[in-house]
User: Fold Protein SMAX1-LIKE 3 from Sesamum calycinum.
Amino acid sequence: MRSGGCAVQQALTVEAAGVVKQAVVLAKRRGHAQVTPLHVANTMLATSSGLFRVACLESHSHPLQCKALELCFNVALNRLPASSSNPMLAPPHSQHPSISNALVAAFKRAQAHQRRGSIENQQQPLLAVKIELEQLIISILDDPSVSRVMREAGFSSTQVKNNVEKAVSLELCSQSSPPQKNNSKENSLLTLQPSSSPPTTQNERKTRNPSEIPIRMRM
Assistant:
């Protein structure tokens, strides 16, 4: 990526930056001059256990529906114009595709949304706010080209966004809930301790069964 792309990467968390890097590789492999929200969405959908794919599966549980979505994204990527220069003949610094205006707008939406959602982020400058992966997904789904592909495959971008937000909320609730005290170890220690029986009195020793008294043999 060019200098603008490096600045964008600095505004992303490690996980979100990894997705963008894969999208850049995808655009370069297809010979596209720019990285668009379609590249990012296709990259996130390709991750089988990723949040984006899981949110799509919650909307349509059948895996073939996600396969249809992958095909629709593939068709949309095929429609994008290819780079005019030959990657084999171009200088090394120009081989990397640039970030499209639509993707830059998606980054700005994600930053603004994340800044509004946290008091700590509101006290920081906008450029200092790191974009989390879930905010990147929600912002990418707001892109018109991505929403159109989702609609063609029978998905609702709004529903998928709600699934993403729900998953994030559940994760935050599980992290903030206090851990329950586990007394099983303490109880097991109590059961393992030998019970202290009261000492045997002299009267009890006298009333024992004679058969229990040991017989001493004289030699």
Q: What stands out?
A: Residues 188-192 have pLDDT under 50 and may be disordered.
